[in-house]
């Protein structure tokens, strides 16, 4: 009987250890997704992987649990190799989502280059995750 109790105790301890370690993820970035819209919070944006040439290009970063301030930034790379870097945002230990983006108007109101793009997300200057998205050809509006 004592032998069964010891095996049962070991099984419970092992289960508790597994559950405890699962909650202690060292995953700095849980996920990222691209989104269109003119906003600074995820609820102001529309998740998409296809943008118009005059959309603001955004990436939403979902952070893992962290106990210190993290510097989060993004590098957007266009199909012709053009590179646009965001300023780093400081995310304290209570921040779970960060929006990084490129404002179309701030770039001089020139349409983004159509084609396949990539965004790389960095935390503390270390590449964490990447995503690909498409910018569609935008027809110029007739002036008049």
Key attributes of the depicted protein:
144 residues; alpha+beta; Immunoglobulin-like; 4-stranded antiparallel sheet; 15% helix
List the helices and strands and how they pair.
Elements: H1 2-23, E1 29-36, E2 46-47, E3 50-51, E4 57-63, E5 70-77, E6 83-85, E7 89-91, E8 97-102, E9 115-123, E10 126-135
Question: What can you see in these coordinates?
Answer:
The chain has 144 residues and is α+β, with helices and mostly antiparallel strands. It has one domain (27-135): Macroglobulin (MG2) domain (Immunoglobulin-like), CATH 2.60.40. Helices cover 15% and strands 40% of the residues. It is built from one helix and ten strands, in the order H-E-E-E-E-E-E-E-E-E-E. The protein has one helix spanning 2-23, and strands spanning 29-36, 46-47, 50-51, 57-63, 70-77, 83-85, 89-91, 97-102, 115-123, 126-135. Strands 3, 5, 6, 7, 9 and 10 form a six-stranded mixed beta sheet that branches. A four-stranded antiparallel beta sheet has the order 2-1-4-8, with no helix packed on it. Strand 9 and strand 10 (126-135) form a beta hairpin. Mean pLDDT is 84; it is low at 1-5 and 15-25.
